[in-house]
Amino acid sequence: MKLIYQGLGVVALLSSAGVLPAQQGTTAFLKTNINPGRAGVFVDGKYVGPAGNFRIGRKYPLPAGQHQVKLVDPRFEEFNTTVDLKAGKTTKLAEALKPLPPPKGPFGGLRTPVPDKYAAVYINEKFYGHAGEFNNSSQKLMLPVGEYAVRVEPSGGTPINQKVKIEDGKTVLVH
Fold first, then answer.
1. In order of start, what are the domains of the chain with their CATH numbers?
2. Mean pLDDT over each residue of the chain, to the nearest integer
């Protein structure tokens, strides 16, 4: 078993170094150092995951060239930029998002207990985080009382679309 892990480590090392022939000349990489780390990273309009996943050990493999990057967290102003990625190189994006004023209550909760913890969660078509942030009794999204259109979009499979009514002090499940 140890030998398999060592072999996989060599493949991962070669892959991240841009040595594998399939990646030479066409793949570039993006790393992020974003505050807050739970901000969603969108590249060319596609959600690729929370920023904190790509700080130290991981990076986004992308085709070389220019890409539109958007950072989204509902508690902060959105940030948009263009990055120019060079083949075989890693570009680092560092940004501290500017906080928005806190919402006014009363509040109710929303939970998303779905299998894909990195499924993107949208409220009224605005990104709010990934499902793993709101998936158990001590982790829920607090929203002002009202009606909302919720979409949970897994990386593979069919999105969940549900209209919900958030009531003061109550929690709604979307699954």
1. 27-96 (2.60.40.1120), 107-173 (2.60.40)
2. 85
